[in-house]
Design brief:
alpha+beta; Macrophage Migration Inhibitory Factor; two-stranded parallel sheet; two-stranded antiparallel sheet; elongated
């Protein structure tokens, strides 16, 4: 059973996340020949203040734009 874990900064809609998971499921079905029922996908989301890149939190980076 393929199991995929995705780490994201919070902020995407449920519709965006569902679409992404559906596309990943379809890719696994196509490329691995597995049944969609065995594919498990989990999204781990972190608040923007809990992720950092280049010494600044994503919240700080977002404030600059």
């Amino acid at each position: 059973m393929p199991e995929i874990t995705i780490n994201l900064a919070a902020g995407r809609t449920d519709e965006q996340k569902r679409g992404m998971m559906a596309d990943i499921t379809a890719a696994l079905v196509k490329n691995l020949g597995v049944d969609p029922e065995v594919v498990v996908i989990q999204i781990n989301e972190a608040p923007l203040s809990h992720k950092m890149k280049g010494g600044k939190t994503y919240l700080e980076r977002q404030a600059k734009t």
